[in-house]
Amino acid sequence: MKQIHGAIYIYITMFFIGASYYLGHSYSHPIVTFLSGTCMAIAIFVHLFSVWIVKFQLNISEMEEGTF
């Protein structure tokens, strides 16, 4: 189940990176540039959140196994 969640986070991150790249290179309007930056910020946030979740899950599994 953890692998499925990891794949979902990767797909969400890649979607927002792709949207940011597309918006940044296809249009030159200031609002679209802002949306491009927002998409990249969301991608970074999702990535950091997924790393935090994995570390949290590892801490829980270590506590359950007694290797904490």
What's the arrangement of secondary structure elements?
Elements: H1 2-26, H2 30-65
Helix pairs in contact: 1-2
Give a quick summary of the entry.
The protein is mostly helical. It has two helices and no strands.
Unreliable stretches covering 5 or more consecutive residues: none
Please, how many domains?
A: 1
Strand content: under 5%
How many strand segments?
Answer: 0
Largest sheet: none
Structural class: mainly alpha
Oligomer: single chain
Distance between the termini: 22 Å
Can you give the mean pLDDT? Answer: 82
What's the total helix number? 2
Radius of gyration: 16 Å
Structural shape? elongated
Q: What string gives the helices and strands in order?
A: HH
Helix content: over 70%
